[in-house]
Amino acid sequence: MPYSYDRRASSVLRDVEKFVQQQRTWLELEDQGAKTLYYSTRANGDVDAERPGREDLREAKRLADLINREFSELVKASWDYVDEWTGLQVDIIPGRRASVAKA
Protein backbone atom coordinates (compact mmCIF):
# COMPACT_ATOMS: atom_id res chain seq x y z
CA MET A 1 0.00 0.00 0.00
CA PRO A 2 1.43 3.43 -0.93
CA TYR A 3 2.50 5.74 1.84
CA SER A 4 0.40 8.70 2.97
CA TYR A 5 2.02 12.04 3.73
CA ASP A 6 1.25 15.45 5.11
CA ARG A 7 4.51 17.10 4.15
CA ARG A 8 6.22 19.27 1.55
CA ALA A 9 8.70 18.17 -1.13
CA SER A 10 11.78 18.14 1.12
CA SER A 11 10.09 15.85 3.63
CA VAL A 12 8.87 13.54 0.88
CA LEU A 13 12.44 13.22 -0.42
CA ARG A 14 13.63 12.39 3.09
CA ASP A 15 10.98 9.66 3.25
CA VAL A 16 12.13 8.34 -0.13
CA GLU A 17 15.72 8.36 1.14
CA LYS A 18 14.72 6.34 4.23
CA PHE A 19 12.72 3.96 2.04
CA VAL A 20 15.75 3.35 -0.21
CA GLN A 21 17.95 2.68 2.83
CA GLN A 22 15.51 -0.01 3.95
CA GLN A 23 15.87 -1.81 0.62
CA ARG A 24 19.42 -3.00 1.34
CA THR A 25 20.81 -1.64 -1.91
CA TRP A 26 24.38 -0.92 -2.86
CA LEU A 27 23.45 2.21 -4.83
CA GLU A 28 24.73 5.24 -2.94
CA LEU A 29 23.21 8.70 -2.64
CA GLU A 30 25.49 10.85 -4.78
CA ASP A 31 23.58 14.11 -5.08
CA GLN A 32 20.59 15.74 -3.42
CA GLY A 33 18.73 18.86 -4.51
CA ALA A 34 15.59 20.63 -3.37
CA LYS A 35 13.44 18.40 -5.59
CA THR A 36 15.79 15.59 -6.63
CA LEU A 37 17.79 12.63 -5.33
CA TYR A 38 20.44 10.88 -7.43
CA TYR A 39 21.91 7.48 -6.56
CA SER A 40 24.70 5.75 -8.44
CA THR A 41 27.05 2.77 -8.47
CA ARG A 42 29.62 1.02 -10.58
CA ALA A 43 30.03 -1.88 -8.17
CA ASN A 44 29.47 -4.46 -10.90
CA GLY A 45 30.41 -2.30 -13.89
CA ASP A 46 33.29 -3.14 -16.22
CA VAL A 47 35.62 -0.15 -15.98
CA ASP A 48 37.94 -1.31 -18.78
CA ALA A 49 35.10 -1.94 -21.24
CA GLU A 50 33.12 1.04 -19.89
CA ARG A 51 29.94 -1.04 -19.53
CA PRO A 52 27.43 -1.09 -16.69
CA GLY A 53 27.01 -4.28 -14.71
CA ARG A 54 23.84 -6.29 -15.29
CA GLU A 55 23.35 -6.58 -11.54
CA ASP A 56 23.59 -2.79 -11.15
CA LEU A 57 21.05 -2.23 -13.93
CA ARG A 58 18.63 -4.75 -12.40
CA GLU A 59 19.03 -3.15 -8.97
CA ALA A 60 18.38 0.37 -10.30
CA LYS A 61 15.29 -0.85 -12.16
CA ARG A 62 14.07 -2.72 -9.06
CA LEU A 63 14.45 0.39 -6.90
CA ALA A 64 12.79 2.63 -9.49
CA ASP A 65 9.81 0.26 -9.66
CA LEU A 66 9.51 0.12 -5.86
CA ILE A 67 9.76 3.90 -5.47
CA ASN A 68 7.27 4.56 -8.27
CA ARG A 69 4.82 2.13 -6.68
CA GLU A 70 5.16 3.47 -3.11
CA PHE A 71 5.31 7.17 -3.95
CA SER A 72 3.32 7.12 -7.19
CA GLU A 73 1.50 10.42 -6.73
CA LEU A 74 4.52 12.32 -5.45
CA VAL A 75 7.74 11.35 -7.26
CA LYS A 76 9.01 9.83 -10.49
CA ALA A 77 12.03 7.52 -10.33
CA SER A 78 14.02 6.60 -13.44
CA TRP A 79 17.31 4.83 -14.07
CA ASP A 80 20.10 5.42 -16.56
CA TYR A 81 23.70 4.48 -17.26
CA VAL A 82 26.85 6.11 -18.57
CA ASP A 83 29.88 3.94 -19.25
CA GLU A 84 30.27 1.65 -16.21
CA TRP A 85 28.07 3.84 -13.97
CA THR A 86 24.42 3.06 -13.27
CA GLY A 87 22.22 5.81 -11.86
CA LEU A 88 18.81 6.25 -10.29
CA GLN A 89 17.14 9.66 -10.28
CA VAL A 90 14.13 10.55 -8.13
CA ASP A 91 12.25 13.77 -8.95
CA ILE A 92 9.29 15.43 -7.28
CA ILE A 93 6.32 15.53 -9.67
CA PRO A 94 5.64 19.25 -10.32
CA GLY A 95 2.38 20.59 -8.99
CA ARG A 96 1.77 17.71 -6.60
CA ARG A 97 1.50 18.25 -2.87
CA ALA A 98 1.50 15.43 -0.40
CA SER A 99 -1.61 14.98 1.69
CA VAL A 100 -2.88 12.58 4.28
CA ALA A 101 -5.04 9.72 3.00
CA LYS A 102 -8.33 9.37 4.88
CA ALA A 103 -8.58 6.27 7.05
What do you see in this structure?
With 103 residues, the protein is an alpha+beta fold. The protein contains two helices and four strands; from the N terminus they run αββαββ. The chain has helices at residues 9-21, 54-70, and strands at 28-32, 36-41, 75-82, 85-92. Strands 1-2-4-3 form a four-stranded antiparallel sheet. It is elongated. The mean pLDDT is 88.
Question: In a few lines, what is going on in this structure?
Answer:
With 103 residues, this protein is of the alpha+beta class.
Q: Radius of gyration over alpha carbons?
A: 14 Å
Number of E strands: 4
Helix content: 25-40%
Please report the number of helical segments: 2
What structural category arises from helix and sheet content? Answer: alpha+beta
Shape, principal axes of CA atoms: elongated
Amino-to-carboxy terminus distance: 13 Å
Strand order of the largest sheet: 1-2-4-3
Poorly predicted regions: none
Task: Give me the strand/helix succession.
Answer: HEEHEE
User: Main beta sheet, described?
Assistant: 4 strands, antiparallel
Mean pLDDT: 88
Beta-strand percentage range: 25-35%
SSE topology:
Layout: H1 9-21, E1 28-32, E2 36-41, H2 54-70, E3 75-82, E4 85-92
Using brief descriptors, characterize the structure shown.
103 residues; 2 helices; four-stranded antiparallel beta sheet; alpha+beta
